[in-house]
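User: I've been trying to design a sequence by hand for this structure and keep getting stuck. Would you show me what you'd pick, starting by listing the structure so we're on the same page?

Assistant: Good idea, let's start from the same input. This is the structure you sent:
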């Protein structure tokens, strides 16, 4: 079987004279110029057979060029760190290191190739011994939201990558006139989707690695004429008057959100902000296991569908299947499943897994939710259903119950079925929240405890990192747990 390939650079909608990329140094590349650079990378990545190309960088030009070249050659790309554990597990034929991080690769069995493209060295595996075959249809390895840095990855197909990108283009109405800033890591599904969709539509990308909230980033995207902005809830939660002022100076007419749940108040604030600009604000839902996007809420459906993540992307189907109930379950609630463009081939933890084909038809997302007139409403994660004094409870539902703008809080359950409210706002407000939890659960006051942190730990995708918070609710549960949490979150925690 011939390896599948994906061309995001020289397809029919990519006009050679049209703008493809704006770089931080103010360089602009047409699709014709981008194609030449990609061809140079193709030469450097030549290999007998399908190879695995590990890209350890992020939103820098060499990393993007390596990605585009590998897809055009029919290779598979792994957006993973070049750590000893990852290299031993997957044995990639090529490694494109992150800027300034090539040291140590020679000691791990890799040698620099003679070619350097845009100043970046490419490393080849030194051993001539053959490694395991790669499934011809596989295009990408991405870390799951909870496995960054570990060998567990999601195997994504070339057809899924192209199909999901095409579905998102239709859902958002992306045209060649759009200019999207790379505001999120391309090493994650959402950020990579922004790159894929706009290149596939013949639009342009504003490339840069800065924070989506920094003044330098906004200066860059204003100068380059960016027309859209994509971010996760934590970014939008920090979007203040200064950013609204910068937005007013920009050409942005589309904003999209995914990665975690966005509160209803903030959703409407952003929708009204974009409405005053004759713009659009899209609430979206997706998973790495679905390549990127699963559902999208049309801006015209706000506010009547507030709280929904919308309907399935074109070509996809969302269904809700029976799941164990809990005390606060909504009528029709169950396990959210998805079938359509982008469903993963399966998981992988080592090189041998890359030879396997499709193992998933209908994706069980691990989320709970319900459908109303085809619109999906999420209510929590199946693994966040716990028992508190014998009653099954949805911790995500409890978080929504006590939600307060400006007072981020998380609810976890520890030993002896004690519920822990962890907050990063005013203590008085969190005490009110704690009392609400006690009343809602119908448990003694001592069964719900509060712990203050300066900020809640987050995953790279912007979701609350409950694995870090588990330090508080673990067997020690006291100062040792708090110290562990502070160390994991970093300075200021």
């Amino acid at each position: 079987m011939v390896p599948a390939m994906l061309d995001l650079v020289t397809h029919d909608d990519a006009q050679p004279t049209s703008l493809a990329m704006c770089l931080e140094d103010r360089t602009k590349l047409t699709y014709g110029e981008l194609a030449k650079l990609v061809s140079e990378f193709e030469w450097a990545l030549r290999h007998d057979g399908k190879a695995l190309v590990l890209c350890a960088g992020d939103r820098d030009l060499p990393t993007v060029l390596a990605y585009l070249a590998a897809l055009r050659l029919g290779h598979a790309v792994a957006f993973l760190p070049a750590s000893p554990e990852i290299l031993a597990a997957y044995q990639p034929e090529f490694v494109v290191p992150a800027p300034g991080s090539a040291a140590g690769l020679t000691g791990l069995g890799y040698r620099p190739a003679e070619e350097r493209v845009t100043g970046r060295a490419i490393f080849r595996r030194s051993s001539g011994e053959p490694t395991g075959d790669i499934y011809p249809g596989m295009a990408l390895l991405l870390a799951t939201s909870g496995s960054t840095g570990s060998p567990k990855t999601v195997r994504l197909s070339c057809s899924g990558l192209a199909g999901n990108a095409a579905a998102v283009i239709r859902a958002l109405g992306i045209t060649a006139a759009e200019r999207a800033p790379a505001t999120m890591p391309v090493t994650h599904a959402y950020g990579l989707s922004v790159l894929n969709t706009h290149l596939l539509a013949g639009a342009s990308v504003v490339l840069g690695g800065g924070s989506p909230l920094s003044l330098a980033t906004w200066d860059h995207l204003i100068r380059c004429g960016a027309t859209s902005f994509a971010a996760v809830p934590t970014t939008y939660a920090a979007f203040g008057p200064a950013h609204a002022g910068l937005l007013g100076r920009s050409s942005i007419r589309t904003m999209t959100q995914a990665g975690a749940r966005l509160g209803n108040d903030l959703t409407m604030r952003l929708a009204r902000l974009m409405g005053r600009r004759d713009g659009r604000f899209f609430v979206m839902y997706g998973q790495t296991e679905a390549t990127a996007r699963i559902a999208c809420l049309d801006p015209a459906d706000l506010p009547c569908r507030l709280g929904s993540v919308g309907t399935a992307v074109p070509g996809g189907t969302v269904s809700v299947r029976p799941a164990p109930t809990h005390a606060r379950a909504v009528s029709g609630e169950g396990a959210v499943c998805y079938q359509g463009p982008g469903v993963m081939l399966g998981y992988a933890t080592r090189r041998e897994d890359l030879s396997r084909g499709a193992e998933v038809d209908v994706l069980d997302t691990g989320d709970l939710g319900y459908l109303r007139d085809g619109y999906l409403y999420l209510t929590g994660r199946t693994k966040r259903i716990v028992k508190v004094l014998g009653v099954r409870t949805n911790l995500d539902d409890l978080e929504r119950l006590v939600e307060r703008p400006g007072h981020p809080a998380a609810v976890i359950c520890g030993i002896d079925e004690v519920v822990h409210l962890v907050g990063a706002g005013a203590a008085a407000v969190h005490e009110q929240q704690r009392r609400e939890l006690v009343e809602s659960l119908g448990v003694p006051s001592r069964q719900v405890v509060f712990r203050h942190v300066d900020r809640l730990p987050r995953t790279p995708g912007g979701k609350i990192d409950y694995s870090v918070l588990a330090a508080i609710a673990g067997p020690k549960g006291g100062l040792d747990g708090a110290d562990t949490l502070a160390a994991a979150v970093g300075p200021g925690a």
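That's my pick for every position. To get oriented when you compare it with your attempt: The first strand starts at residue 19 and ends at 22. Residues 476-484, 487-493 have pLDDT under 50 and may be disordered.
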